Amino acid sequence: MGKPTSPEARFPPVSCFTIPPTGRPHSMNPALQHASDPNQESGFVPLFNGRDLAGWHSIPRVYSALWAGGPTIEEAFAHLPESERFSADFLASSHHNQARWTVEDGVIVGRQNQPGGGFGGFLLTDETYSDFELRLEANLSWPADSGVLVRKTATTWQGIQILLDYRKSGNIGGYYGNGIGAFHAVAFNLDAEVDADGTLIRLFEEDPSTTIEPIGDKRALLSYGAGAAEFLGAWRLNEWNDIWIRVEGRLPRLTTWINGTKISAIDLAGLSAPNYDAEATAELLGREGHIALEVHDTDPMLKEARWGRDSTCRWRNVRIRELAPRPVGSIA
């Protein structure tokens, strides 16, 4: 998601597999836990049954402080003109208005509260998870600012986000620290060509001179970052794309693959970023958390360039392979 990055920022970058019986695995074959072969399904169980949202619940997209002990979004962006920041009324109303989540033709569909309504939200797993590999297929409108959160808290926006910012100056596969320092770890930005009807016809690396979210030193936050050419070679335009996310560790190491191509990795234990505190993050998020899908709200700067009036995020084949826990006493 494009999100608020710092108080100084001018722009607040605030064929299907067969579904087996549902249930949470009790043990995994260790030999399979490090596999990233796109055809490797052993050990995965579904989180979505393809019929309804059993096992999931929704919450509004409500902001907490930008980091533990840090400013609220109102405080952080109070210096901006009124037309460029969330109003107090909007932020208060966000507690009672949220995205709509439906199941249509076997697919989870996320929309804002109403076309052009501006309010977003999260769809959370009822259960919490620690170390795992998550696979799911995504099909997003352009523009749609979405994402997958792991170690997600039960309320507000806090968690570690894997970005699916399908919009100008957005990124797919990078990371953002929701309420844990607002770090923004990406290796490239995207732009697109659309036809007269707004249909996406071409995706390309953004010209830095036109960006609203400069890359700056964001690449340095990644332990691995594929370039835009690698991403574009893997991404299937206007089709379903397979997202594979690996999460492991108390302060987790995360890796993201798109259609079998490694796109990015980050190590939160060793991350050095302004306003990010590793131990405070571990205490806040805990050793396990919810998995969440996101519909972003519409901010006053990007407006419908953030989330189009009729935009959707669509998800299917959501499944998880939990990893064997590390021995007691491990510091990882």
Q: How many structural units, i.e. domains?
A: 1
CATH topology type: Jelly Rolls
Name the average pLDDT: 89
Helical residue percent? under 10%
Low-confidence stretches: 4-35
The assigned structural class equals mainly beta
Query: What is the H/E string?
Result: EEHHEEEEEEEEEEEHEEEHEE
Tally of alpha and pi helices: 4
Task: Please identify, by name, the CATH architecture.
Answer: Sandwich
- Which homologous superfamily in CATH is the superfamily? Exo-inulinase, domain 1
Strand content: 25-35%
Q: How does the major sheet shape up?
A: 9 strands, antiparallel
Tell me the radius of gyration: 19 Å
Quickly name the level 1 CATH class: Mainly Beta
Structure commentary:
The chain has 332 residues and is mainly beta. The protein has one domain: Jelly Rolls, CATH 2.60.120. The chain is 8% helix and 32% strand. It is built from 4 helices and 18 strands. It has helices at residues 73-76, 88-93, 228-234, 278-285, and strands at 45-46, 56-60, 100-104, 107-111, 121-125, 132-140, 144-152, 159-166, 172-178, 184-185, 190-194, 200-205, 224-225, 241-248, 253-258, 261-267, 290-295, 313-322. Strands 1, 3, 4, 6, 13, 14, 15, 16 and 18 form a 9-stranded antiparallel β-sheet that branches. A 7-stranded antiparallel β-sheet has the order 2-5-17-7-8-9-10, with no helix packed on it. The longest helix has 8 residues, at 278-285. The chain is globular, with a radius of gyration of 19 Å. The two termini are 27 Å apart. The model is unreliable at 4-35 (pLDDT under 50).
